[in-house]
Write a structure and sequence with these properties.
The complex is a heterotrimer. By secondary structure, chain A is α+β, with helices and mostly antiparallel strands. Chain A has three helices and nine strands. Chain A is elongated. By secondary structure, chain C is mainly alpha-helical. Chain C folds into two domains: 247 residues, Up-down Bundle (Cytochrome Bc1 Complex, Chain C), CATH 1.20.810; 114 residues, Helix Hairpins (Orthogonal Bundle). Chain C has 16 helices and two strands. Classes of the chains: A alpha+beta, B mainly alpha, C mainly alpha.
């Protein structure tokens, strides 16, 4: 290769490299900004939730269901043969030890992201007594596991911890 | 034809301007503009250097933390800092726990979802510095951007803090009506010479420094000015770093481009 | 039109041949800015600025579209949303400074481009249409830049909007209703901010459209050149690619070095501190000025301090300011000299340099407070400005004796041209 060809190729390559590097910030700007990332934990006071009741909280601008299960709902969930489930998990795996009555899941259907019914007062809980997504008919049981309908996974359990007996920190 | 019209239009504008010049000149002579007291006694900010000055300057986190302490213990009584979030303080060297503790020390507005009441709560890292209620004279500006919102902002802040003085006798002799009004304070670095803010930093060791620096009024003023450079432009260090990398690359690429340009034209005679 | 010796696009790859039959876009590009466009071989660096202006437009559109992803056009949150970009959005500070300083860079480049046209007579036949479209682009740029400056909703944004829309209230009879209509209210507020945002987003694409027309019109007669002598033969030209793509690449590098130095090290040098204060409709800043690129026109606006005949000073200033640009539309017919280039017009050249000084003086006065001596200097400078275009150019072009022109571009470059007739 002649020297002058080499220089021409180098110059065009440098321009190409510069152009590609310039793209990086243009792409990165669409990722979550610092203020969005900063809000990624939520503290919830659960002291007022009676057995059989649930509340919707907000975590990362998405609903979180916090549900105080009744002994009946717990035994229903534990009675299910795990191997028959689409996404096999026991209730124990989806709750914290000693706090099995507190079922904390994202309120986002794993099918296409609608908010299932069943957490609000008087909402339909579906035929398995858990949650029911009206968009495409996914039905979840009392451990928020998928039992029927198109959703592929159980409702997601976010990372959380009990900071006291009545306060849960999500995220 | 178009040239005749154009010359007429040109003459029209020129005559109108000459008329303005003439009348302006006459009134300038008959009623010369009076010198104002601001014009005569306002001073440009003092010369002062900051660690972050210049193309290679960088923030000194120790100084910024001292400046933050001055803000928190003195300025924050009246001045808000609403564009800054507590989490931002990590950038000036505080760790997560320190940021949490600082945030906890501020009450930020919140509202009770159950009752709809507006309440306050302890701040968390994600919160911004809260608004400051102020009922006194004047309107203390938010300080987040003050270093960019004034000409030579950092120098201005420093000069203002260290520039309080008695009104010069010379001023009163020349402008007898310009006596500083009751409740205001004379400061030649302020645009109209009299401001509502009393001298905020009055004595050495007004703020206790923990890093061994002597907390003179001058030092505290400089530190808080440095801190306000940071609040106004928190990405200053990254900006300059990026700038050097970009300029370095561009210089390299431009030299290559020049050589390629000479190559391409090499066979053309006369170039 | 193109010169008969222009290279023809001949795709060798079957895919490109197929493409050429269905949609000859590669052929179009080849003929527009590729090897198929013969360009005078003697262009100097002043001719780089057209391509640079195109680059600036692209830069502003890209950064602008991105900023619009994060900006909120509402008086309650606009200021904070800009600070959100500066503080929290990834690389937001860089994108915002790139856009704000990109506007300045765009105007620098375009002013050089315009003054190159003034000197080399680029507006003269057969290139009048290129010039007229260029003036349209400049007007659109001014409107876009003004509305963009309003968006951060700082003190200068607000008072700029108040003052500039106030110009329209000078128009007799319809002025006041027009002013209210433009703002959608009695003072700048949400309605104005939202429509300015909408138009600020739209107009750059209109500019891009007119730029295409501008380049289209350029390709009819082909580029002018520093001698002003038209292309006569193949040896007068070189293909745009690779000759001018290489030169423009180098020019772009030099431009980017200057632009990035500004962006990364002095990003607020051309801005105004007051625009970091949120808009306050109750208090006007002590000294309000537009951005630097409007200063010469702002000086002309303020130069009219007295009513003249039956015309109020305010209307006179507005008329003069708009006329200062509108007069450019008539330039091809005001300067009738048969010689294009200022190189061969000794008298014109002196006045041209005087115009540059005059524009700088006007700019300086426009950025200074409205007090003496700036008012009187700007009045005298404004007289020269109008006299230059409306009186001096028509007269000079009629009486001037130009220097002898070279026979051809080839002769100008090489010192001789064998096709030239023997010297008489």
């Amino acid at each position: 290769m002649r020297r002058r060809d080499f220089i021409n190729i180098a110059a065009v390559s440098a321009a190409g490299v510069g152009g590609v590097i310039t793209l990086l910030p243009l792409i990165s700007q669409m990722a979550p900004s610092a203020d969005v990332l900063a809000e990624s934990s939520t503290e919830i006071d659960i002291s007022a939730i009676q057995p059989g009741q649930a509340i919707k909280a907000v975590f990362r601008k998405q609903p979180v269901f916090v549900r105080n299960l009744t002994p009946k709902e717990i035994s229903e969930a534990e009675a299910v043969d795990v191997s028959s489930l689409r996404d096999p998990q026991t209730l124990k795996e989806r709750t914290k030890a000693g706090k099995e009555n507190w079922l904390i899941t994202m309120g986002v259907c794993t099918h296409l992201g609608c908010v299932p019914l069943g957490a609000g007062e008087g909402e339909v809980k579906g035929e398995f007594g858990g949650y029911f997504c009206p968009c495409h008919g996914s039905v979840y049981d009392t451990a928020a596991r998928i039992r029927k309908g198109p959703a592929p996974k159980n409702l997601q359990v976010p990372e959380y911890a009990f900071t006291t007996d009545t306060v849960v920190k999500i995220g | 034809m178009i040239r005749i019209i154009s010359i007429l239009v040109g003459a029209f504008f020129s005559l109108a301007l000459l008329w303005s010049v003439g009348k302006g000149a006459v009134s300038y002579v008959t009623e010369p503009p009076k010198e104002t007291v601001e014009h005569a006694f306002h001073l440009a900010p003092k010369e002062v250097e900051f660690e972050s000055d210049g193309a290679f300057g960088k923030f000194d986190n120790q100084q910024l933390q001292r400046g933050f302490k001055v803000y928190k213990e003195v300025c924050s009584a009246c001045h808000a800092l609403k564009l800054v979030a507590f989490r931002d303080l990590k950038a000036i060297g505080y760790n997560d726990d320190e940021v949490k503790a600082i945030a906890k020390g501020f009450q930020v507005p919140a509202y009770n979802k159950n009752t709809g009441e507006v309440v306050t709560k302890e701040g968390v890292a994600a919160d911004h510095f809260p608004p400051v209620l102020y009922a006194g004279q004047g309107t203390p500006p938010d300080l987040s951007l003050i270093a960019k919102a004034r000409h030579e902002g950092p120098e201005y802040v420093y000069s203002l803090l260290t520039g309080y003085q008695e009104q010069p006798a010379e001023l009163l002799k020349k402008f007898p009506d310009a006596k500083t009004p009751e409740g205001l304070h004379y400061n030649p670095y302020f645009a109209n010479l009299n401001l509502a803010m009393p001298q905020p930093l009055t004595a050495d060791d007004q703020v206790t420094y923990t890093d061994g620096t002597k907390a003179t009024v001058d030092q505290m003023s400089k530190d808080v000015a440095a801190f306000l450079i940071w609040t106004a432009e928190p990405k200053l260090d990254k900006r300059k770093q990026t700038g050097w990398a970009v300029l370095g690359f561009l210089l390299f690429a431009t030299v290559l481009a020049y050589m390629a340009y000479r190559n391409v034209w090499a066979e053309k005679k006369g170039h | 039109m193109s010169f008969p010796w222009a290279n023809e696009y001949k795709p060798s790859h079957p895919l490109m041949q197929w493409m050429d039959e269905k949609l000859p876009l590669p052929r179009f590009v080849y003929n527009a800015v590729g090897a198929g466009y013969p360009v005078p071989r003697n262009l100097n660096y002043a001719w780089n600025f057209g391509v640079l202006a195109g680059f600036c437009l692209a830069l502003q559109i890209v950064t602008g579209v991105i900023l619009a992803m994060h900006y909120a056009a509402n008086t309650g949150v606009a200021f904070d949303s800009v600070e959100h970009i500066m503080r929290d959005v990834n690389w937001g500070w860089m994108l915002r400074y790139a856009h704000a300083n990109g506007a300045s860079a765009f105007f620098v480049v375009v002013y050089v481009h315009i003054f190159r046209g003034f000197f080399y007579g680029s507006y003269k036949a057969p290139r009048e249409m290129i010039w007229l479209l260029g003036v349209v682009i400049f007007l659109l740029m001014m409107a876009t830049a003004f509305m963009g400056y309003v968006l951060p909703w700082g003190q200068m944004s607000f008072w700029g909007a108040q003052v500039i829309t106030g110009l329209f209230s000078a128009i007799p009879l319809v002025g006041d209703p027009l002013h209210t209509w433009l703002l959608g209210g009695f003072a700048p507020d949400n309605a104005a901010l939202n429509r300015f945002f909408s138009l600020h987003f739209l107009l750059p694409f209109v500019i891009a459209g007119v730029v295409i027309l501008h380049i289209w019109a350029l390709h009819i007669p082909g580029s002018s050149n520093p001698t002003g002598v038209e292309v006569k033969q193949e040896s007068d030209t070189v293909p745009f690619h690779p000759y001018y793509t290489a030169k423009d690449g180098f020019g772009l590098g030099v431009f980017l070095i200057g632009y990035c130095a500004l962006l990364f090290f002095f990003p607020n040098a051309l801005g105004h501190p007051d625009n970091y204060i949120p808009a306050n409709p109750m208090q006007t800043p002590a000294h309000i000025v537009p951005e630097w690129y409007f200063w010469p026109f702002y000086a002309i606006l303020r130069a009219f301090t007295q009513d003249f005949l039956f015309i109020p000073a305010k209307l006179m200033g507005v008329l003069a300011m708009f006329s200062a640009i509108l007069v450019w539309f008539f330039l091809p017919w005001l300067d009738r000299s048969p010689v294009r280039s200022g190189h061969f017009r000794p008298t014109f050249r002196k006045f041209y340099y005087a115009l540059i000084v005059d524009a700088l003086v006007l700019g300086y006065c426009g950025g200074s407070p409205a007090e003496e001596p700036f008012v009187m200097i700007s009045q005298i400078a404004a007289i020269y400005y109008f006299a230059h275009f409306l009186i001096i150019l028509p007269i000079v072009s009629a009486i001037e004796r130009p220097d002898p022109l070279p026979f051809s571009i080839t002769e100008a470059v090489l010192g001789s041209d064998e096709t030239a007739p023997a010297a008489a």
